[in-house]
Amino acid sequence: MSPATGSVVALRRYPVKSMLGEDVEAAAVTEQGVEGDRVAALLDVATGTVASAKHPRLWRDLLGFAARWDDGTTLIRLPGGRTVRADHADDAVSRALGREVRLLTTRPEQATVVRPDPEAVMDAGVDADVPYIHLQIGQGTPGRNFVDYAAIHLVTTATLAQARAEMVRYRPNLVVDLPGATPYAENGWTGRELTVGPVVLRILGPTPRCAVPTLAHGNLPRRTDAVRTLLRDNHVGGYPCLGAYAEVVRPGGVTVGDRVVC
């Protein structure tokens, strides 16, 4: 099969787990992922778990915060518009959330998040106390940042067009345009290598979706079809999926517009 050729159309990072992120034109990509991505997270003091909007009843308000990474410094914009440095943010973020949290910059060993089934959340509502599991994060990366699984999450424009929901809901690092690619083509890429500019990625598997895409993101309202569409059209291994996880085989710098060979 001849390789498909396309380009990078979006490059994103999310400096604080479950907060809104930022578009960048260029970034270094290391074995840990996009520089500045998921470099911090909030620890729920009451439970010892990592705060994640996967558990909407407790943490959906995190998607009203935004974080940016400024040459090694993480800045957090609170829902009211005030910006604070992450290393001085514990009190302000705790007050805004109504729950005591502590910001971490190194993932603890066997760190977990709470993950209810997205269908249960959609059926019962975001305030419902539905069953959940504890999910260990970062198992597909050598780093100590707060990625869910692997260093990179990518998706094609064809898949996003088929899902018909805003890209920011799915929180990818890379959006690639591959002319001729079919929707959900990423499902069949496991084990395949992608060249993105000078960077080489190896696909680990499709990305399972939680309840996060269905939640309000900043000014975007709640939208359950962001996952219901996947439950109908792209159920893989028992999960609604969109995009793919990848590990970094060869680090380098990535710029929007870089050539992608798949």
UniProtKB/TrEMBL annotation:
<dbReference type="InterPro" id="IPR005303">
    <property type="entry name" value="MOCOS_middle"/>
</dbReference>
<dbReference type="InterPro" id="IPR005302">
    <property type="entry name" value="MoCF_Sase_C"/>
</dbReference>
<feature type="domain" description="MOSC">
    <location>
        <begin position="128"/>
        <end position="262"/>
    </location>
</feature>
<dbReference type="Pfam" id="PF03473">
    <property type="entry name" value="MOSC"/>
</dbReference>
<dbReference type="GO" id="GO:0030170">
    <property type="term" value="F:pyridoxal phosphate binding"/>
</dbReference>
<dbReference type="GO" id="GO:0030151">
    <property type="term" value="F:molybdenum ion binding"/>
</dbReference>
<dbReference type="InterPro" id="IPR011037">
    <property type="entry name" value="Pyrv_Knase-like_insert_dom_sf"/>
</dbReference>
<dbReference type="Pfam" id="PF03476">
    <property type="entry name" value="MOSC_N"/>
</dbReference>
<dbReference type="GO" id="GO:0003824">
    <property type="term" value="F:catalytic activity"/>
</dbReference>
<protein>
    <submittedName>
        <fullName>MOSC domain-containing protein</fullName>
    </submittedName>
</protein>
